[in-house]
Amino acid sequence: MSDSVLFQALVYLAAAVLCVPIARRLGLGSVLGYLIAGVLIGPHVLKLVGHGAHVMHFAEFGVVMMLFLVGLELKPSLLWELRKPIFGLGGLQVLGTAAAVAGAALAFGVDWRLAVAVGLVAAMSSTAIVLQSLGEKGLLKTAGGQASFAVLLFQDLAVIPILAVFPLLAVGAVTAPAAEGSSRPGWLQALFVFGAVGLIVLAGRFVVRPLFRLLAETRLREVFTAFALLLVVAIASLMVTVGLSPALGTFLAGVVLADSEYRHELESDIEPFKGLLLGLFFISVGAEIDFHLLVERPLLVAGLLVGVLALKAGVMYGIARGFGLDRPGRWLTALGLAQVGEFAFVLINVGEQQRVWGAEVSRPLVAVVALSMLVTPALFVLLERVVLPRVSGGGAARPHDAVAHDDAAVVMAGFGRVGQVVGRMLRMAGHPVTVLDLDPAMVDLLRRLGQSVYYGDASRLDLLVAAGCARAKLFVLAIDDPEKSVEVAELVRRHFPNLPILARARNRGHYYRLRRVGVAGIFRETLGTSLELGEAALRQLGSRAHTAHRVALRWREHDEAALEDMARFTGEDQSVWLAEAKKALENFERAMRDELTGVSTGEKDPGWDNETLRAEVKGRAAPPTTTDQAS
Amino acid sequence: MAGRRILVQLAHPVLERSRVNRRLAEAAREVEGVTLNDLYERYPSLRIDVRREQRLLAEHDVIVFQHPFYWYSVPALLKEWQDLVLEHGWAYGAKGHHLDGKVTLNAVSTGGPKEAYQPEGYNRFTMRQLLSPWEATARLCRMRFLAPFVVHGALGFETAEQVAPQVHDYRRLLEALRDDAVDLERAAAAQLLNAPLDAVLEAKEVSA
Predict the structure, then answer these.
(1) For chain A, how many helices (H) and strands (E)?
(2) What ipTM was assigned to the predicted interfaces of this complex?
(3) Fold that domain A410-597 belongs to in CATH
């Protein structure tokens, strides 16, 4: 019975559905919920599932997909922007932690190769847990959150060279039966790594993108999704065949496709699979924890766990301090990144295949890594409730406000420069507004001024529901960050399809993205100001006020028409788009020139212009009946 | 035959506070064959799309200007509309023939009572006299100008029931104009369309 796939699915899904909401309600985060679910259904408690190994194998795909998504996010421009924290903070963290852990291992008399390998494994933190926790707690935008992100990014990158180095660390003495695909000598294996990497880069550049274009033209969404999945699965298979981590391959593919025009479609296609499989992954990690080992050698496991956490936190704190991070930031990175992450499982796995170590090393390693992940949410709670309130001036870390379930007609996301004007205007006109904003200082200030503003992340469905989206008449999207804004727009469109959205757009790109999501009312935030300034400039240069005003109004009309017109070409080739944009610009400028100068073009308002009337009158001997229009 | 197409050019800057015009407009909107063009709703910043307005005029046979009477004239946007849309060479002049033969009238609400708009009343002038600029405009554009449909004493109305008879008459008038059941000669000669409404409509029915 317990072998049937249906029963297994039942157990896993039920465990997740029961444990995750409870964990979140308790403020522990979804990752801990999954881990606890895994422990509960695992071989040591309820015995509903056996050792999670085969499920883990399947669930590792969640990690694979997560890395693909991480890769997709990793545009070269972002890398460049964050180069200092990524390579400085991240580089030092990986090297420093690896050295510290390896040093400790050496001190206990471990072979140097094994020590280095264990050090490298320990340097990894959990991208999944940390990013999800930071996101849930609204800490991602803080200095510490950004630093954590940079370090995690570097770790993601570092996996590649580490995987390449691993074969060279194989301890010759171990004579375990050769795992599949790893019977090659180290140098040949290294060659395979670079060969496979090259293949992925080339294929991503020259094969995958045209294929995407072809499929996008069919307009069959499920085919597109299928291809996105196929791509990930295919790369993973290739990687397994050459004896490499599938995660590495898909990560690379993600980077290669990061600047493709299909990035967002890919992201939204893969995202739900990733979420589900990642959950499964955490459950199987929970199920995987070897409690026998814990019982047999509790001191060893506990010692290793505490040692690793302390070393990692210590190294990170020192580095963060050296980089001038504020105190909350230092503590956030130190405690937040102290766990050993899911990459470690991948590395441990590979290490076993590459005969870096045998089961007697990998079993306690897996246990320590899993436990370190298990205690992470507890560390975050400690950080949030105990450490941060002491080291910061308050407000750096706070839970989302409980939104009073009021039935405001309007729900507004973002209460910055744009949102404040709109929100206050609506309130003054007698429409209650529920506002969600993520800037703690701003929220506090506005509340002291008597505004009902809630601290909360509008990209969370539960908050949108609590804010009353189901009954609201209007959703005002005034978030300045385009990524977040589009995310929220998508969420609202999906879950409240009948709720009209009025959105602020930062620029044309943002405008088109909101438009694609299906937002009908989009307002570019700088347009109004620019028109007013232009109008003032024309007046300064001698135009009559009314004329200048009408020029500005007409400019807006032309500009909006051109913007809508160009929307047809956003999916096209760059060259087609450019040609059309150039044409539109020329038309636009000609029309505006006529407005300003052309007396006889018919583009201005001849009702106020008596040229033709004068001509007609001059052409006749006697004044006709039509001369009573004064000039 | 499909009947005459009617364009109601509604000009009211605060329609939501209106007692008469809002209800008249609702009635007009429901009459088949009527296009209601809510000018203040369409042009909130008073910037009129001249080409669109001219297209609308060309597409209709009867043009009704529905508005409150502000200082014995029309709200500002309708004056602007007049200035810009009725272009020389399009609406009038040697080459302007787009409005030739169309029928036009004003549907007006006034605050004062009917008696005020008499030579002996406190406003001194009749509605037709005060609307003579519109009559002159119609003539210059070679349109047939009818007597106005006037709802007097609009300030006194509170409930929908009080306006109901006028709303009913307005609907009848629009339907009759659509169905070509109006004696245009009599309608052009009358002081107001309201008082002799039955006469104007019945006369045509008898003669038909």
Answers:
(1) 29, 6
(2) 0.72
(3) Rossmann fold (3.40.50)
